[in-house]
Amino acid sequence: MSNFPDLSSHGFRVVRELGHNRAGGRVTYLAIPLPSASSLAKGKMGGQPIVIKQFQFAKRGTNWSDYDTIEREIQVLRGLNHPGIPRYLGSFQTSQGFCLVQEYKRAPSLVVPRSFDPDEIKQIAVSLLSILVYLQNRIPAISHRDLKPENILVDDKINVFLVDFGLARIGDSEVAVSSVAKGTIGFMAPEQLFNRQLSEASDLYGLGATLICLLTGTPSTAISNLIDDDYRINFKHLVPKLSLRWIEWLQKMVELKPKDRFPDAATALEALKPIYVIRVPEVKLNQTNLEFTAKKLGEKLSQTITITNSVPDTVLESRLEVASHLSDPPHTPDFHRWIWLEQSEFIDNNALCKITVDTSRLMANKTFERELLIHSNSQPETQIVNIKVNTAPVPIATKKMPYFSLALLVFFAAVATWVETSAWEGIVNKSGTLGMAIAIFVSAFVALLGVMAAVTSNFISNVVAKIRSRFGLPLKALDTVAAVFFAGVAAMMVTGFGAKFRATNAAIAAFAAVDAVVFMAAFEGEGVAASCLNRGFSKTLACGVSILSGALGISLGIGFKLGFFNNLPVMSAVLGTSFPLAAMLLYPPLERARRIANYRKLEGHLIKP
């Protein structure tokens, strides 16, 4: 047996219950007209499902004075004709109570959990305001006075219907305090709650509260959770992606004082139409890659990025944090061991963020790559700024020998010695004891030329420096070539002059010039020794490398003339100069590698890339 009331005598069959208010004795049913329906059912329903609202006054807890509510609703509905208001079809009396018949709309109320996007909620607001404009434009105007999610139906196509006019008021007619109290707390305007003069702005409060519930996903029974200590509906923090104008419009709808709201539904509707409901801020960065390069150990470096938003009616809210990295110690969004943010949170459309890196916690001569995350109320919600940090070199200078100049020195010394050895060989063979004397004399003369070369080397260096500057030649070995060139010219002049006398004199002059070339190549202003000193090597190492290079060249020159394998002294000279020279050349890089290895041991507590 069905528990539904038997309304067959009135031409209806109840299909199911749509809702009820047991305390107030009101139950709403869905019914269909019977084939043998009365003229009421046949004439106005056309066989379509209808809604029957039954007022059961005989139920315990009900009050016969509630009959005024039925009369008021019938009085209001009879004169209404709007697609957003279900039509009044009639009424009849039963033994169980009085029944009001209305058009049925296949649409659930807003208390049924559903998901609407913000634009659909704006569409609902526009539809409801249009209904209120219709009601307020009637003569006399009609106030609904109970706008809340339960009394608003919305179908799948976002068609909106306003129901339950039981508390409605026509014009300025008086309403008993008891009926005022039957409104819903949280959706009633303050002036209605305290039974003060109502206005066309009163219904706007309930509509605004309903829209806020939809936008924040708050059930109508929990609206008190949104009301702060000042009795205002506080919701802005729950809808960060809504445009400012949309939020301001909603806040104006639920102002506590009627004079602070829109004066009527038409004004509110006009203000709402041009508003963008969703307008997401846009994050613009002046740079997405930050590179820090330290010139000394432990240096702190800072750069600034600008975060801007140019989208109107929006405020950019951003929060910055350094992304986690396997090499970094554990950190929180607000604190990082070596990357510091002067300010990590902004509510601003033009924010400056200063970023500082502390390289004292990082290994030297390394490259560190990290990511700075910018979380915001824009789309996408997270953007990335790449941070690249180049730490200062290891505090051990890199010194490189002038290998090319050394090679030239060895080459010219070998060539000069080969020429000189060939000449001396002939002189000694022809002159015997006299040749030996000449050799001793020439040695002394070479020493004198060496002193003269050291005095005049600045002139050669200046000339060569001008040539390098003119043609952009950075090669310091050019000085060695110049020394050979100028000394060679001098040798040719002296040799030519000596040819007028005895051949021996010409040979001596030529040998002296060649020895001067070797001396100048090793010791003139921009030569090997000076170059080594300029590169930070000690005087001992600079002179030792130069002397050994010259000695190795001389040994090689003699060896090429007299032979290597059959001449033990020559082989001993080559080996005796080459091994010490190799040791001196290998010492700087090996010593630097050793010092770097010791330094790295001390870096065990530092952060790795």
Automatic annotation (TrEMBL):
Keywords: ATP-binding, Kinase, Membrane, Nucleotide-binding, Serine/threonine-protein kinase, Transferase, Transmembrane, Transmembrane helix. Its EC number is 2.7.11.1. Residues 12-276 form the Protein kinase domain. The chain crosses the membrane at residues 403-424, 436-460, 481-501, 507-529, 541-564, 570-590. It catalyses: L-seryl-[protein] + ATP = O-phospho-L-seryl-[protein] + ADP + H(+); L-threonyl-[protein] + ATP = O-phospho-L-threonyl-[protein] + ADP + H(+). GO terms for molecular function: ATP binding; protein serine/threonine kinase activity. The keyword Transferase applies. This is non-specific serine/threonine protein kinase. It comes from Symplocastrum torsivum CPER-KK1.
